[in-house]
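Support request, please re-run this one:
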Amino acid sequence: MRLKPLIAAITTAVVLSSPAAADPGQVWLYNWSGYIDPDTLSGFQDATGTAVILDTYGDADEAEARLLARGTGYDLAIVASESVGRLADAGVIRKFTLSDVPNAAALDTELMQVFLASVPQAAGYAVPYLWGTTGIAYDRVAVEERLPDAPLDSWALVFDPENASKLADCGISIVNSVEEVVAAALAYLGLDPNSRSEQDLEAAFGVLSAIAPFVRSFDSYQYDALMDGEVCLAIAWSTEGLAPQLEKGDSRYQYVIPGEGTNLWADLFVVPSDASDLDGAHQLVNHVLQPSEMARATLFTNATNSVPASRTEIRDPGYAIPALALPPETRGNLYFVKPLDGGQKRRLDRRWRLLQIGL
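Re-run finished. Output below.
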């Protein structure tokens, strides 16, 4: 789910708009833009003789729609956790043969159990790649100048209209992910973040409508805005929100998990039902799940990876911060956003679009 700028040149992976005819020396991967280290893909080719052909997307809904349409030609895809249940229910993904992915035995079972408790229909259909949260990234200096007594560890920092109005001049961005943002507004109100009651959803959209006039952008591509200081506060995926702190070593920008709680998200491997190279798909997943490759993935994406044994491979002490390492005491304040059915998702999407255009 979580985006960095698209890598312009990828050594062994070619970014194309649609798959060509299957080639026995190739495995087709569909993934978020900029969300796998090119060295991981070149290493897979060196180890197996199979090239990875990479096609990318920039929005979870785009990926879900494409897989639901079938006939994609992909052998493997990495998709957002909120999509997996709908994809499984629609029959467009197939179960993994985990005996062909021996490195899956080293996965963080606790995180997977939390995911399956919220999305039980995904059991057997998904293997986790990376994890993260949706929280608040902020410029400490700019925020404290405008809000000396700001509640820096609370959703009130942005969801209270009085606070949002004072931060509007330096820039507020909200990640373009309706399911996650509505859940956060519900948590801020002390309500069940997975509530589907019309009354609760009205209250959540009331919170969002009250701050919408002060929001500069609803944007999934927040990496550059945060890295370049173009906004002083963002509701952001942790992969984006942690970037200034981890990649620039700049403590001025902080990323926090609000005290009211926030969602834990996952990006997971799935195999399309019409995949033509199941062996290649399983081999690629097994390659990525090696501790050394999982460590590489964390350093490349700023995401929590799925293999605890990889932590000894990460030498940078910055990557031990709780918002990234997700120790047990941090996990207790997290929840998964349970998937909506198709009709619920369409209704929520419509309200989200109307909010963004001020209606």
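The chain has two domains: 26-131+265-315, 133-263+337-356. The domain at 133-263+337-356 is CATH 3.40.190.10 (D-Maltodextrin-Binding Protein; domain 2).
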